[in-house]
Write a structure and sequence with these properties.
The radius of gyration is 12 Å and the shape is globular. The protein is α+β, with helices and mostly antiparallel strands. It contains four helices and five strands; from the N terminus they run H-E-E-E-E-H-H-E-H. The protein starts with a helix and ends with a helix. Helix 1 runs parallel beside helix 2.
Amino acid sequence: MTSVADAVQAMKAKFNPAAAAGLDLVFGFRIDDTKHFSLIVKDSTCELQEGENPDAQVTLVMDGETLEGIVDGSTNGVEAFMGGKLRAEGDMMLAMKLSELFPN
């Protein structure tokens, strides 16, 4: 992957609509402290928005390399969290749901 934008698009392409049935969630992402985007998961749909979303129930903070690794499967999200490369602000339990919604 060449950029954070590519990683985000790849993540969206992996979306599992069946896992999102009945959900209404907003995941925020802050990458390299300069890039913000959110994934809005609602009733088996996923919408990607650029910019910070004040409705995010959880915001994941990481660098671009960590995001790319998580999306392409070369980095384990839990290991990145435990190693301090990934931080969750807000409802941490929702962050765990991401692996169901966006499987590798």
